[in-house]
Amino acid sequence: MGERAVLVEVDSLEEVLALHARLEASRPEGVVDLVPAARTVLVRVDPRVLALAAARSWIERAPDAAASVPAPPRVVELDATYDGADLGETAALLGLSTDDLARRHSEAEWTVAFTGFAPGFGYLVSEDWPFDVPRLETPRTRVPAGAVGLAAGFTGAYPRETPGGWRLIATTDAVLFDPDAASPALLAPGTHVRFRPVAARADVSQPRRSALPRIDSSQGILRSADLRRNERATVAGGHDTQPALRVTEPGLLATVQDLGRPGAASLGVASSGALDRASLRTANRLVGNAETAAGIEVTMGGLRVVALRDGWFAVAGAWGRMLLDGRDVDPYEAHAWPAGTELRLDWFDHGARAYLAVRGGIAGPAVLGSRATDVLAGLGPARLRAGDDLAVGVAEAPIPAAGIAPWGAPHDDELEIELGPGPRAEWFTASAREALFDAIWTVTNDADRVGMRLDGPVLERRRTGELPSEGMVPGALQVPPSGRPVVLLADGPVTGGYPVIAAATDASLDLLAQARPGTRLRFRHARPAH
Fold it and tell me: What is the pLDDT along the chain (530 residues), one digit of tens a residue?
């Protein structure tokens, strides 16, 4: 799958679990993510550490986990009240009474096969569960946190409020995903799960108190009725807590971004981070920050920010008029920012995203090691709004004496994007694979940090039917039934059920970040790595 990942396919979910265990037990340096799914395990690597060819060799030769003494599986016990909105209808569909459905569900021994859809959302399977439950014909726009649902042969509990099409049969009070905990996802792949029926509360005027489970060392069971005292993993960062900036107008979309949180995809967490990483790195270098420091990603312009204390700033990426206290200033330069003055980024003339770096970096608590805002999962700081105050850190390096050259406006009329191979290219006709590279594609208005939909010829499939969910990567070109591809970006889902015909190279992701609606794309085969 592209230049930084391979998809390993097996015949059954049982083989997925065994393969994932083998790979996890012998995981070498350079493996970024192992993402199990229904029939596959996605292996993402850092090619600077582990070449893709070496990764393939390791996968083929990974020792059988059965040859070693396996660790006993973790068991989580979830209190569940069988009061879901779809309990009666689902029972009728299966030819059961509601009591029978609840009993069969609670008596089954469940295992987390994989995660996806949302951080901490586990897809649970059981040999004791023979039912294939159809999804709702019209998905709900809002499913409350803690809802327990059924779909196909799976059960799962929603960690946060989100849209969803599963049939809801129960609720649980357990905290299923806590990004500040040492082990954020309660239901990680391989975990064994039991649902313990509990009665509904008589007093519904007061919300239930959610509880974090802890380990019962005597039985190795996590019980949702107990409090877990996990060591917190939040990184606050050294900074003065007094605000240094105030947002007076956020524009279309402004978010805090750094270089993201790779390595948590098996928990359902996307890499996130700046879409144009090169521009964020450049802006940070201009003000003496580490390249990893957090800045503000500004989409299409319109940002206005007032300095509450003296500082320095630089802007890189998309191009538009930029004014400090009403005076024009240039991008790609470090500028002093006196207290009380307003920086204004007008709507961009070229490119889609600019990066505002402030000397010291945007400070605040980190979630899974990153301050990045994930708009799909709701992790990290909320999108910036008028009146938000921001603190900054302390820079250790001096501001460079000279600017960084060359620089110029991003090209956004027509971009050439390199594509690596996709794992499901053979699902498409030969003419569709040719059209992918022959056609000129146009970025539609349906584009955000999650992905961008492209307009162009219909890519016809020669293989029909459903594709079981499998791991995704930023840059993956998913092709839904419409036949027109969607390019997944940094906040995209970590698993998906549409076939991937190709994947943009890592370098091309920065170019895609600057593609505006109406930008034309030409795809080219990626040049071989040297």
Answer: 999 999 999 998 889 988 998 999 999 999 999 999 989 999 999 999 999 999 999 999 987 755 545 567 789 999 999 999 999 999 999 999 999 999 999 999 999 988 888 899 999 999 999 999 998 888 888 999 999 999 989 999 999 888 888 999 999 999 999 988 878 899 988 899 999 999 876 554 444 444 444 333 333 333 333 323 332 323 334 445 689 999 999 999 999 999 999 999 988 899 999 999 999 999 999 999 999 999 999 999 999 999 999 999 999 999 999 999 999 999 999 999 999 999 999 999 999 999 999 999 999 999 999 999 999 888 999 999 999 999 999 988 889 877 666 677 777 789 999 999 999 999 999 999 999 999 999 999 999 999 999 999 999 999 988 788 899 999 999 999 889 999 999 999 899 889 999 999 999 999 999 999 999 999 999 987 65
Token representation of residue 386: 């008028």
Angle (CA) 127-131-132 rounded to 5° is: 115
d(CA 386, CA 439): 42
Instruction: Say what the pTM is.
Output: 0.85
Q: Residue 335: count other Cβ atoms within 10 Å of its Cβ.
A: 17
Tell me if 75-223 shares its fold with 414-525.
Answer: yes
For domain 245-390, the CATH architecture is Sandwich (2.60)
Q: 75-223, superfamily in CATH?
A: Cyclophilin-like (2.40.100.10)
Domain boundaries, the chain: 5-67, 75-223, 245-390, 414-525
Both tokens of residue 495?
Answer: 């698993």
Q: What is the CATH number of domain 5-67?
A: 3.30.1360.40
Q: How far is CA 319 from CA 185, 231, 327, 384, in A?
A: 40, 44, 16, 21
Provide CATH code, domain 414-525.
Answer: 2.40.100.10
